[in-house]
């Protein structure tokens, strides 16, 4: 049988090329493969300014013609070859393999996570589309919010990060790619998000290798975060995310029991507060966990698009048992 028509996109880091089957219908919708291919070439030219495509080839191609797309991709691959040849001869040999390569830029990471999602979540109807920060619109909503929160948290190599109820794992991947924390965990109990999370993991690793971009260690765990098996992860985390907006009082209470064990300095970021803002002044007991934590309500600067149309607030709780 004749070999299927392919378009190979060379990696700007010299890793294995990305292979697109022709016709380009990968992901969802007939044109998404072609759009993704052209967008990726644009992103490479943006992320590596030394890579300049000849003439205005990026504005005169026909996504329905294999020949047209083939000549665009050939032009791109030749440019990459020349770029890698130059890089091989100019930078010091060890510099190319320095582990401190630049992290992905914010905008590129959003593009990569979107691409990972489209390839991994092949039927989003299996996901609960009504939860706050729905995974389908992650790029427009949660991504920016998490960027801002990460900036405020001043995360260091000493931090370990945990997303309680991590869904398909978008936050875990974003934190692993954009911070230097030593470990990122996500714990998810439902079957469909876990099945997609496995594919998210594979596509993320494939694409970050293609881009030659570093990322921290992470693990997407299939389980119930209330399970004793995972108490060690909660106890060793220094930053905990929990999107508990839709959690009932019972589940919030069970989380408070676990938070009461956390050491001073640990920070819990949630979409609903675990205790009233000014609840420090009262006797210390579980029904008033506020006595062991400082809480502050933060809302992103105006103008950031939010899932519900109105700007979302979130709460930063810092465990602090020092006297009032
Ligand atoms: C005893 C009892 O009550 N048992 C039932 C309850 C079990 C609780 N244990 C759970 N364990 C593991 N996963 C469980 C359990 N509860 C439910 N989930 C999963 O959470 C997922 C939903 N997730 C969102 C998935 C994507 N991750 C995020 O949106 N993360 C995130 C975190 C913080 C923020 C900010 C910074 C704004 C605060 C924003 C987003 C939230 C809403 C909890 C679903 O896929 C659920 O299956």
Automatic annotation (TrEMBL):
<keyword id="KW-0808">Transferase</keyword>
<keyword id="KW-0489">Methyltransferase</keyword>
<dbReference type="GO" id="GO:0006281">
    <property type="term" value="P:DNA repair"/>
</dbReference>
<feature type="domain" description="DOT1">
    <location>
        <begin position="16"/>
        <end position="324"/>
    </location>
</feature>
<protein>
    <recommendedName>
        <fullName>Histone-lysine N-methyltransferase, H3 lysine-79 specific</fullName>
        <ecNumber>2.1.1.360</ecNumber>
    </recommendedName>
</protein>
<dbReference type="GO" id="GO:0031151">
    <property type="term" value="F:histone H3K79 methyltransferase activity"/>
</dbReference>
<dbReference type="GO" id="GO:0031509">
    <property type="term" value="P:subtelomeric heterochromatin formation"/>
</dbReference>
<keyword id="KW-0949">S-adenosyl-L-methionine</keyword>
<dbReference type="GO" id="GO:0032259">
    <property type="term" value="P:methylation"/>
</dbReference>
<dbReference type="GO" id="GO:0000077">
    <property type="term" value="P:DNA damage checkpoint signaling"/>
</dbReference>
<dbReference type="GO" id="GO:0000781">
    <property type="term" value="C:chromosome, telomeric region"/>
</dbReference>
<keyword id="KW-0539">Nucleus</keyword>
<dbReference type="GO" id="GO:0140956">
    <property type="term" value="F:histone H3K79 trimethyltransferase activity"/>
</dbReference>
<dbReference type="InterPro" id="IPR030445">
    <property type="entry name" value="H3-K79_meTrfase"/>
</dbReference>
<dbReference type="Pfam" id="PF08123">
    <property type="entry name" value="DOT1"/>
</dbReference>
<comment type="similarity">
    <text>Belongs to the class I-like SAM-binding methyltransferase superfamily. DOT1 family.</text>
</comment>
<dbReference type="InterPro" id="IPR029063">
    <property type="entry name" value="SAM-dependent_MTases_sf"/>
</dbReference>
<dbReference type="InterPro" id="IPR025789">
    <property type="entry name" value="DOT1_dom"/>
</dbReference>
<comment type="function">
    <text>Histone methyltransferase that specifically trimethylates histone H3 to form H3K79me3. This methylation is required for telomere silencing and for the pachytene checkpoint during the meiotic cell cycle by allowing the recruitment of RAD9 to double strand breaks. Nucleosomes are preferred as substrate compared to free histone.</text>
</comment>
<keyword id="KW-0156">Chromatin regulator</keyword>
<dbReference type="GO" id="GO:0035097">
    <property type="term" value="C:histone methyltransferase complex"/>
</dbReference>
<dbReference type="GO" id="GO:0005634">
    <property type="term" value="C:nucleus"/>
</dbReference>
